[in-house]
Amino acid sequence: MANLVNGNKKKSNGGILKRFVGNKNTVTILGILACIATLIIGYNYRVKLSINPINVPYAKQNIATRTLITSEMVGNIKISTTYTQNADNLVTSAKNVVNKYVSFKTSIPKNSLFYKDQLIDAEDLPDYAFSNIPDGYTIYSLAVNKDSSYYNSIRAGDYIDLYLSAKDKDEENKQIYAKFIQSIRVLAVKDSKGNNITKNRTENGIPSELLFAVEEDIYLLLMKAEFLGLKVEPVLRNAQYTKEENETQVKSEEIRAFILEQCSDI
Q: Looking at residue 49, what is its pLDDT?
């Protein structure tokens, strides 16, 4: 008898719950309560963001174009995190500002926040290649293209060789092709607009020239070869050769003599 009563109670309770859930008014009320709860949670989240600001760097002074940013130029200010959510370009850490340069395309006003497109590394400055040339050295520029630069494979800092090709008029126009300059360091790689092409940035375009810093006698020899219409071309070696620093030297004395015989000394 007791089991029968308990069974009837369970059926009665289940029926009440089923009717309660199936009631349209009940569903409406539950839906309204859920919406209210969502609004309250969302509001509290936004309030929390507003009352928990973050520190971001700002410029304590006017910073001119191409200026190295030091720690003395940078302060910190608290702003709402909601401001940073849609500002992908905003720099939020001072360590990503100090020791960067202001882009040559802009300047940074006093009290301004910092943005990624305003900052560049030293190697991205147009005249970076000329900043550390040793005394007695001269810049030599060798024109290249996509093919002769090994499809953008030559980078600043690489050690390569320079070969020379020519026709020897004294030997029935026989073709000369030999190593000319051995282990010469690439100072910079530039595109047709003068932008640096670095190891981490290839979006500047196709290489147009390779820059080298060479001693005066090698510079004169290279320029005389060009004036004579001789072809100088870069040759890329393996990874170990490319990284190792060796003495830059004229490899072929025969080629040196071949060039100098066709030029007058002044």
A: 54
- With a pLDDT cut of 90, the percent of the chain lying above it is 45
Tell me the per-residue pLDDT of 83-126, one tens digit each, with 9 for 90 and over. Answer: 666 578 899 899 999 999 998 888 999 999 999 989 988 877 87
Q: Which domains does the chain have, with CATH numbers?
A: 54-120 (3.90.1210.10), 130-260 (no CATH)
Give the tokens for residue 141.
């520029």
> What three-state secondary structure class fits 141?
strand
Rounded-to-integer distance, Cα 157 and Cα 209, Å? 14
DSSP per residue over 41-107, as a string?
A: HHHHHHHHHHHS-EEEEEESS-B-TTPBP-GGGEEEEEE-HHHHTT-TTB---GGGTTT-EE-TT--
Q: Which amino acid is located at 87 in the chain?
A: A
Q: How far lies 230's CA from each of 161, 168, 224, 254, in Å?
A: 16, 11, 9, 15
Per DSSP, the residues of 205-263 read: -SEEEEEEEEEHHHHHHHHHHHHTT-EEEEE---HHHHHS----EE--HHHHHHHHTTS
Average pLDDT, the chain: 82
Distance CA 131, CA 219 (A): 19
Identify the residue whose tokens are 């989240």: 45
Instruction: Give SS3 for 162.
Output: strand
Token pair 């071309």 is at which residue?
233
What is the percent of the chain with per-residue pLDDT over 70, rounded to a whole number? Answer: 76
Residue from 113, 106, 119, 115 nearest 74 by CA: 113
